[in-house]
Amino acid sequence: MARVTTLTQLIEAGARAAAKCCGLDYDEVCGVEADPDEGYCDSSTCVAALFEDHDPDDARGYYASQARATILAILPILADDLAGVAEVNSRARYFDRDRAKERKAKQEARYFEIMAIECIHIAQAIRTRVAAIMEGEG
Predict the structure, then answer these.
(1) Strand, helix or coil at 20?
(2) How far is CA 116 from CA 1, 26, 79, in A?
(3) Residue 2 phi/psi, 5° resolution?
(4) What pTM does this model have?
(5) CA–CA separation, 24 vs 36, rounded Å?
(6) Please, are residues 86 and 126 in contact by the beta-carbon 8 Å criterion?
(7) Hey, what's the torsion of the CAs at 7, 13, 14, 15, to 10 degrees?
(8) pLDDT of 1 above 50
(9) φ/ψ bin of 104: left (φ > 0), alpha (ψ from -120 to 50), beta (otherwise)
(10) pLDDT tens digits for 25-64?
(11) Which residues contact 23 (CB under 8 A, 6 or more apart)?
(12) Measured between alpha carbons, how far is 79 from 134 in angstroms, rounded to an integer?
């Protein structure tokens, strides 16, 4: 069975990447989390190192919100691009079909027509899948 990616997984991966770009470790246990009685963290790679209140949960939430906004902005563009590739491929297969018809190669023409229709279905599937991810259903 194919792996299904959820919006939550994309956001978590994006949040980790955003923190890493700042030189921070999203998954590092903050000293404040490890020992709340001491309430001190001296790690320069703690996810909350750049936040004045040094709250790791707030810091992770910040990186996740930035990742979510970025992902939701990029996904529709990416879906249109990928679906566009499939649609271009579909037009090429219809062209191949027409050329085969000119040569009276009926079986070959039917093959290219089936491929063209499959490309259209792929384009629709890409758009449907991305819409489901964006709606939190994927």
Answers:
(1) helix
(2) 25, 45, 19
(3) -70, 150
(4) 0.74
(5) 21
(6) yes
(7) 110
(8) no
(9) left
(10) 999 999 888 888 887 898 999 999 999 889 999 999 999 9
(11) 44, 45
(12) 11
